[in-house]
Amino acid sequence: MLAAAAVIGLFWPSAPARAEEGMWTFETFPLARVNAAYGLRLDQAWLDRVRGAAVRLNGCSGSILSPEGLVLTNAHCVAPCLQDLTERRQADMETGFAAAARDEERTCPGQTADVLVDVQDVTDRMTAAAADQDGATLLQVLYRTEEAIKQEACGGDARFTCQVVDFHHGGRYALYKYRTYRDVRLVFTPEPSVSSFGGDPDNFNFPRYSLDFAFLRLYDDDRPAATPQNLRWSSAAPREGEPTFVAGNPAMTLRQLTSAQLLRQRDQGLPILVGQLAELRGRLLQYSETGSRQAEAAATALAGVENSYKVVNGQLSALLDDDLIQAKRAEEDELRQAAAADPALVDMMDDRRGDPWTVIARAQTAARDLYPTFRQLEAAAGSGSGLYSYARVIVRVSQERAKPPEERRPGYSDAYFAAVARKLAIDKPIQSDLERLNLTFWLQKTRELLTVDDPNVRALLGDESPEALAERLVKGTRLDDPDMRVAMLAMTPDELAATGDPMIAFVMANDMAAQLARTEWELAVEAPVTRAQEQIARARFAVYGDEVAPDATFTLRLSYGKVAGWTQGRRTVEPFTRVAGLYDRATDAAPFRLPESWVEARETMNPQTPFAYVTTNDIAGGNSGSPVLNARGEVIGTAFDGNIHAIAGTFAYDERLNRTVALSTTVMTEALRDVYHQTHLLKELGQR
Amino acid sequence: MLAAAAVIGLFWPSAPARAEEGMWTFETFPLARVNAAYGLRLDQAWLDRVRGAAVRLNGCSGSILSPEGLVLTNAHCVAPCLQDLTERRQADMETGFAAAARDEERTCPGQTADVLVDVQDVTDRMTAAAADQDGATLLQVLYRTEEAIKQEACGGDARFTCQVVDFHHGGRYALYKYRTYRDVRLVFTPEPSVSSFGGDPDNFNFPRYSLDFAFLRLYDDDRPAATPQNLRWSSAAPREGEPTFVAGNPAMTLRQLTSAQLLRQRDQGLPILVGQLAELRGRLLQYSETGSRQAEAAATALAGVENSYKVVNGQLSALLDDDLIQAKRAEEDELRQAAAADPALVDMMDDRRGDPWTVIARAQTAARDLYPTFRQLEAAAGSGSGLYSYARVIVRVSQERAKPPEERRPGYSDAYFAAVARKLAIDKPIQSDLERLNLTFWLQKTRELLTVDDPNVRALLGDESPEALAERLVKGTRLDDPDMRVAMLAMTPDELAATGDPMIAFVMANDMAAQLARTEWELAVEAPVTRAQEQIARARFAVYGDEVAPDATFTLRLSYGKVAGWTQGRRTVEPFTRVAGLYDRATDAAPFRLPESWVEARETMNPQTPFAYVTTNDIAGGNSGSPVLNARGEVIGTAFDGNIHAIAGTFAYDERLNRTVALSTTVMTEALRDVYHQTHLLKELGQR
Q1: Is B447 in contact with A201 (Cβ distance < 8 A)?
Q2: Which of A282, B68, B469, B671 is most buried per CB count within 10 Å?
Q3: What is the predicted pLDDT for the residue at A3?
Q4: Of A444, A497, A381, A537, nearest to A8 (Cα)?
Q5: CA-based diameter of chain B, in Å?
Q6: Helix extents (H) in B39-154
Q7: Considering CB atoms only, which of A200, A286, A448 is closest to B287?
Q8: A197 touching B, CB under 8 A?
């Protein structure tokens, strides 16, 4: 599945993509090229209509399908909500959720939805501010300029969110202004047994039969939001070869990393991730098998870990392909030579620090030394423990708030403090068993990676074992209470220390080391890489022009493609699956057991109805829930996965193999009518 | 730790090692070179004395230290025995084991001990038989010739074991004849909390404080075996720089693989192993945390998996070092060119199949396709489930025994049938929880790696989930009863089918596919590689002479080196740890919690006593328990681990970093005297 959570742990920014592929911004979509290639007449109005109905969700995407805020997305994007509602006895994870009327729609804790309403180019202002800056100052200046731009555009208006998006790693900056909905309610999601039919075994595979769709609704002042910009639902399936468009928020691609960056990922970053995710997965699976309560509690975490594991495993495989590395080296050499031959670029490229590729390579050497400590103490600290995260954010906010604004670390703005306060107040259930499991795992891995004799490990553990320490922290903390969290967030560091809360005390005792690890990483890795990537981006623009799509940034993009299967070796995969295949694949055992509703509907459903299909659209994690559109701009599916080759798309798009997997609106329509009897929903979608 | 179990899953044979390193056979030990380098006067009598007292154990090594069969080895080598005896209430895993008198020594189920008594060169006979053979016939001919040689030398005499050892991958063959002891009893092993002090976090690390030694005794006709060949115990610790010798059975090195073989390991074999071992480790850890009974039951399996995980992780890191790959390529190119320039070699090297490097590279392409199926259905089938292994060996023996001897598959000799009968009769306790865990894991991974649509996966699972199938098989089988196993072993295939045992039925239903996967692998990978490696070995002998140590084969080797720390980057590691360090490192939490005996003895123990030390000896998994000898041939320690750099020794030995980790006889002597009060043992060792 392609939720953005799939890409945890990889935090390299990257450089623009090549012309034949691309997740395009709406501002730079190559209309003329696409119209010519597919014989279409798309225009700016088409783009505007789609943009106005595209939605960014937590790690996912979606689209508005009615004037009353109805949003289509994937079931796996609302799985955390379904789990939270189940724990509050407002839903049931076994049976899914279907609101019979508006007043039965239930708010998803912490769910937000962003609709892009304005875009402004701020490149000149950002590059002017960054000119001649270096190291820590460079990162500070970029941050402060961003904050100023956002403050001017959004002020303190909670209905809007502002973001300065860095495209091409310093090549272009834009201010994105979103209308943000903070009350998003669950309308409909099928039984998880059918929405994630095939489970992990089928994830990133095709043929595919998971009914991975759901509906949310945007609310405003406790009423359904008015959304005059919305898309039309078509229940007609596309034909093989028909052009398709996917509008959504791909989170991250790394197609323009230098070879030195790719090799560090291959040799260090990804192997560590693969090993840790596999072990955590084993723990979660074993825990889930101890009972149905445990299985339910761990479901969301397990799905996330299994998905991430497949992703990082596929990424490592991609980078172990020496042909890919050679191709990247060749691209790099070509650009280096072209830049060296251009007199206008020579000064910019070879300043006192050395050329940017050398600077990045040197930073990778530093990264190899610093990464284990940076990762374990800071980037992956707590390893998914919510209580630890609460404690850390409370401690840091308390410390930064005590400083004059101009001395605060980047990111600690008043807007951030307000956002944290909102988040801590959300009453999300805490799973104590999982908290212990995650903390134990994190502490064990930290000791393993840094070794027993490392002073940071000694400071973290003292005389305790990872298991005993995790137990003590989880048992003693009061951070499971939202009121207590909010109260603590308002405290000074001294007041926090006086609470005697063990999790707070643990974070306070170790946070200096964690912040030091971050600072070292920023100075030795992030700052030089940021600057060097900007130089490379400028050289690439100068040499190749700007007709390239930027790497993904979890902002709105549009990709074009067509419905098509693929051939690999002796295996040819047809582009469509049909309802008959779902029933053929069903067994008595999860994750291939159908819910009663589908067993009962077997005679009613048309076995020939297209279920899922694959397209050549270039998408990435974060695109989950994106509408798939036909040339008329009608929604004909929702993208919910890539095929296994799409994982390599992090580094390179291969049109022969890389596929988007979509659920057809045809099967959604039939399911709503014949399985779930959701007449009011069909009516809202303009269907009988 | 360096038990041979550490290298599961890697089954590539390899080519000879370089002159400056080496695990030498006693027949080819470079006496003159070593005497010159260290200023010594070792002679053949010295070698004979050591050889006669060296012992090969199950996956480990040891040495005879008294005329009455007393054997020194590592505590981790007897951990499975301690666990088995605990389950029979003859010992206690918490407190270790100390027999107060001979009649309290307890037989370790399934433990054997081999002492090498004769070596004969059989190269001419083997190469003559293999001449002009190819493919499946080549493997058959080599096997039948080996069987004939073994039969002539050992006959049916159960007191002896014969083995034809292939050195240099076809360069030299030798018949090794061992005196085999089948009644090996536990004499002494410390509390596991101190023998594996530091546990997994300290494994393959140094400084080190695990008291990893134990004593076994060889029995003959229910009496202690007479062992006139034995080594002298010295309680004096070596000095820094003093020469040291390690005699033991390293299981496997891969130093002469071609670059194509190394890259397949890097790209496919090792990543699959790393992922699977990490996940299995997570499962075992989580299971262990559910209770002390569970922790005890899983202890041996967990230690094995954690050790293997560190090994394969380290091996993958070694192969991700492009410098190592480049060095291997350069060696390969040099030999190829030298061979091509030698008119005497041209015909041998470039026969109708192409040159051997090309043949091996082609076989790797085949291996990439075949490996997932071969691994999951055959090589790693059952993933550690004892019940599955019993069923498979029973089914296969039954099928092969029904054929005329000349039509049986390689390996299915009368001697093998007898060995199987002995093994199945051993009453080893079955852990049902772990059986289910392992089978579930194996079935899940098979479905994941081969995908849901694979016909073999469909055949294995039918309509069941991995969990439900594993549960049904473990619950229904009667293979936990040794009498039933022995009875089944005597049955015909029809009789077996009629038992209705679900595990037997499951294996019978799927074994054809597994055997097919093996046959495909043998034909497409093993046979061509075997032949090509023999060609390369002959070329290497012709070009460089035979002054090289062969790759490890789990047969007796002698390595030389000296006591020395190492420096890596800014970190210098001293060669010795001392008793004071053990007490400094102790905490209240496992694996750093000392047993009561050591807490009580604190005032008695000399804090300056050398505990462990590191040497430059080149060793590998299987060397665990090997005696460390001084130049006088006295035992001054037992090798129990390598440092983290020793893992890369699978592919290349680096004298600057690669270290053996040994426990000093000084601390063993003091512990026996002051902590454990084993006066009779000290007396048998010639100590007061």
Answers
A1: yes
A2: A282
A3: 58
A4: A381
A5: 74
A6: 44-53, 79-87, 123-130, 135-154
A7: A286
A8: no
* Contact status, residue B645 vs residue B193, Cβ threshold 8 Å: no
CB of B624 within 8 A of CB of B3?
yes
Judged by DSSP in three states, B557 sits in: strand
Tell me how close the Cα of B453 comes to any Cα of chain A, in angstroms: 9
Angle B104-B110-B114 from CA coordinates, rounded to 5°: 95
- Closest by Cα among B371, B390, B372 to B382: B390
Residue B201 contacts A, CB cutoff 8 Å: yes
Q: How far is B501 from chain A (nearest CA, A)?
A: 23
A413-435 burial, b if ≥16 CB within 10 A, otherwise e? bebeeeebeebbeeebebbeebb
Among A200, A280, A463, the residue with its CB nearest the CB of B589 is A463
User: Of B462, B468, B473, B620, which is closest to residue B555 (Cα–Cα)?
Assistant: B620
A575 touching B, CB under 8 A? no
Residues B285, A289: C-beta atoms closer than 8 Å: no
pLDDT score of B568: 87
Tokens of B318: 């070694």
pLDDT for residue B354: 78
Q: Where are the alpha helices (DSSP H) in B88-166?
A: 123-130, 135-154
Cβ neighbours of residue A589 under 8 Å, at least 6 residues apart? B463, B464, B465, B468
pLDDT over 70 at A514, yes or no: yes
Per-residue pLDDT of A651-685, as tens digits, reads: 999 989 999 999 999 999 999 999 999 999 999 99
Residues, chain B: 688
pTM of the model: 0.92
- Contact call for B278 and A282, based on CB within 8 A: yes
DSSP assignment of B383-415 equals TT-HHHHHHHHHHHHHHHHTS-GGGSPTT--HH
Closest chain B CA to residue A281: B279
Residue B491 banded pLDDT, cuts 50, 70, 90: very high
Mutate to test the interface with B, among A286, A448, A592 (most CBs of B within 10 A): A286
Q: How many Å is the Cα radius of gyration of chain A?
A: 25
Cα-trace Rg, chain B = 25
Q: Given CA atoms A545, A549, A551, A555 in this order, what sign does their dihedral have?
A: positive
Q: What is the CB neighbour count within 10 angstroms for residue A12?
A: 19
3-state SS, A542-581, equals: HHHCCCCCCCCCCCCEEEEEEECCEEECCEEECCEEEHHH
CB contact under 8 A, A278 and B279: yes
The minimal CB distance from B279 to the residues A281, A322, A453 is found for A281
| Residue B313 near chain A (CB below 8 Å) | yes
Is B286 an 8 Å CB contact of chain A? yes
- Read off the tokens for B50: 């050591």
**Cβ-defined contact of A282 to B280 (cutoff 8 Å):** yes
- Please write the tens of the pLDDT for every residue from B407-457: 888 889 888 899 899 999 998 889 999 999 999 999 999 999 999 999 999
User: A452 and B276 in contact by Cβ < 8 A?
Assistant: no
Element (H, E) at B378: none
A317 part of contact set with chain B, CB < 8 Å:
yes
Amino acid letter, residue A455: P
**Are residues A282 and B286, on separate chains, in Cβ contact within 8 Å?**
yes
Q: Which two tokens stand for residue A191?
A: 């039984």
Residue of B302, B305, B452 to mutate, testing the A interface (most A Cβ within 10 Å of its Cβ):
B452
- Residue B282 and residue A287: Cβ atoms within 8 Å? no
Report pLDDT digits (tens) over B234-244: 999 999 999 99
Tokens at B680, concatenated: 């009779």
User: Which is it for the CA torsion A618, A622, A627, A631, positive or negative?
Assistant: negative
